[in-house]
Give the backbone structure.
Amino acid sequence: MIDLDSSFVVNERDVVAETIDGEALILNLKTGIYYSVDGAGAGIWEDVTRRLSARQIAARMSAEYAVETGVAQEAVLGFISELQAEELIIADGMTAVATAASAVAAAGSATFVKPSLHKYTDMQELLLLDPIHEVDETAGWPIAKPEV
């Protein structure tokens, strides 16, 4: 069970992600599965990358979408559980870091839609066969990520 005061980090050893125009695109290099998330889910993903706690994320969502705190907390906990089950994030074990960006939300300006993680396996075999590599002039190719 995820605690509201828990914070998480991206599983950087196996996951790469980019948020473009309000949509988070996430790739699990270990499994070859990629994901897309938009709306409230993309906001949650960005908040996770800033190491905000589930409580802080829910508070931001509650203000941004003008939904009750309990509804926001339930949505955040469910979505974080899904991200964790897919091994996209891991428990941080640290106290969440509050950031000024977490408090900035246009009060009630967006329509709340429960966040969902869209999972795609159509390129799984190809991505596992030829994974994405980091290239560096001094380190060569590919660059192995350090052990966590």
About this structure: Residues 100-104 have pLDDT under 50 and may be disordered. The CA atoms of residues 32 and 126 lie 8 Å apart.
